[in-house]
Amino acid sequence: MSKILAYFVLNIQFMKKIVALILMIFSLTLSSVFADVFDEVQEAFKTSDPKQISAFFDTSIDFKIGDNSSTYSKNQAEMVLRDFYDKTKPQNFTIVHKGASNRGTRYCLANVDTEKGKYRFYIYIKESGSSFLITELNFEKI
Q: Please, what's the b/e burial string for 37-68 (b: 16 or more CB within 10 A of its CB; e: otherwise)?
């Protein structure tokens, strides 16, 4: 009886280690995918090139700058972003927080230094097939 009990105890300990290893691998894989999306978006925003940034846009974008908000097509959103960049001249883009909702929408908050002052950018991204697309931008002066 004690051999059987020892066998089960060893198997339970072994299974706990296997489960812990699987969870660790899964979390590392998930966090690397999560980081890669925002790394690419951050690099695009650091260029201050609306054309490069708009490559991440969905077909339509909810875009809010201050109190003005509207839904734009991908091309219109690029023009709005270009106008904002021309007026404010961003100099520094730093992601300060990343997260995800229960529905899978990913988001990040970034602080942006411009010639016209500091802004906080809220960027919302959804998975679409094998890519990630920006669905919403919210720029607020801080």
A: bbeebbebbbebebeebbebbbeebbbebeee
